[in-house]
Fold these 2 entries.
Entry 1:
Amino acid sequence: MKTRAAVAFEAKRPLEIVELDLDGPRAGEVLVEIMATGICHTDAYTLDGLDSEGLFPSVLGHEGAGIVREVGAGVTSVVPGDHVIPLYTPECRQCKSCLSGKTNLCTAIRATQGKGLMPDGTTRFSYKGQPVHHYMGCSTFSNFTVLPEIAVAKIRTDAPFRSSCYIGCGVTTGVGAVVKTARVEPGANCIVFGLGGIGLNVIQGLRMVGADMIVGVDVNPAKEEWGRRFGMTHFVDPRTVTGDLVAHLVELTGGGADYTFDCTGNTDVMRTALEACHRGWGESIIIGVAEAGREIATRPFQLVTGRVWKGSAFGGAKGRTDVPRIVDWYMSGKIEIDPMITHVLTLDEINKGFELMHAGESIRSVVVY
Ligand code: NAD
Ligand code: AHE
Ligand code: ZN
């Protein structure tokens, strides 16, 4: 079949809207009509050539929602007509990682996914006879995409696509980092670095679990109003702090934070986030994705004295199990999504979404097909 898609032909070049050829689902795969997709900073990072796994040409996009249109042989968990969210972190429930109960990082198809291929080592997308890579196992910047069965979460049919697509990455990543990775307790003092599409979801997660102090840190002063809207109690613009930022944050939180979250991808910020933790027990969660080649550093003494450095992918959420529950949290009003969707675009306007993100003018842009 044919599908309209925004294709990344080369790094640092705007996406091109073209018609691709798409092969149907093979055994264990499903064809999904994507109804809406968010644009996450990770898509921009890959398009900008900063991802060590970045491949071109490819169909980017990993934050979608849609409808199953066809299933391949042996598929049992979904049928045509089901509403689903594609999962860049699948959940096979059979691999060592899934069975460990210790991680959401299913390893069943990670090797081929990182090479832009389906689990059988081939692509379903092609353009003028040449293969086009998949991206993060999702490729939601295409109106139709093929996904492994283990990489779709079936969701309720009354959830609007336009907002629930954001649960495919940003919402789950931010809220999950609080409730699943850090397991923040009521009354905790927390600091969130970077108040974008992820950081604001960390903030609303902290509000949901009853954190006391929710400090937001961002170099864009316009983010103060956004943070307060979702529960932030204090705002710090590092550019207006005289003296050492860590010392300022430690004083503000009465000795250091119980939990800090990096939602910037900047390795210097990651260090600040670790060092702003309370001696003896503070935990810093790295969510931001750093450019290829970057490394983190701190004095080992920071860890010797009890601070903990952790990372979180997809908020520690197991996609097929947890995503439908997060959709319920949204539908019952426990968490908000709609106010964070600042721009709704057509596929033809998708490059504008990247421009708005780089200019700091959007929280989430969503493309509706
Ligand atoms: P975004 O562009 O919407 O937000 C980034 C925010 O960080 C902006 O408000 C920006 O002003 C702020 N910022 C930049 N430099 C800063 C600095 N030095 N100090 C303080 N604030 C600073 O991006 P997003 O979509 O929210 O994504 C944030 C990060 O999370 C990205 O690195 C993205 O790749 C990553 N991410 C990781 C996961 C995961 O599973 N681990 C999932 C989604 C996104
Ligand atoms: N490909 C990069 C790493 C990118 C990365 O860390 N991705 C996150 C999700 S970001 C979503 O917006 C993730 O889930 N990582 C776990 C995984 O298995 O990819 C690199 O550095 O090579
Ligand atoms: Zn993302």
Entry 2:
Amino acid sequence: MAYSVKVLDHYENPRNVGSFTKDEEGVGTGMVGAPACGDVMKLQIKVGKDGVIEDAKFKTYGCGSAIASSSLVTEWVKGKSLDEALEIKNTQIAEELALPPVKIHCSILAEDAIKAAVADYKKKQDDK
Ligand code: FES
Ligand code: FES
């Protein structure tokens, strides 16, 4: 299958690959898997005292579209509030990357990973 130019760009030069240490202040971790193909995506956000996402990192064990989707969303969430980050829809990701129908679930994985990371961050704040 031919990947779009934007997918290839993010796939070949993924942004923000890596991870924060678990106990770092303000970190939320989202780990999600795609039942359709078994791919796994880990996405982390680092939230500042003002509630704004300062940084994001990801590790994705999956196809090019999943890697591109996670790379793209780590760029998108930076500078956003948690509520704004939750508004990111997989359809926006799919549109930006021009994903074909069979690769839509890869973008859903990215949306789910952000939601999971925000939920984890909030849970950690509540547990304090
Ligand atoms: Fe999982 Fe794409 S099917 S690698
Ligand atoms: Fe399964 Fe991309 S995440 S094919």
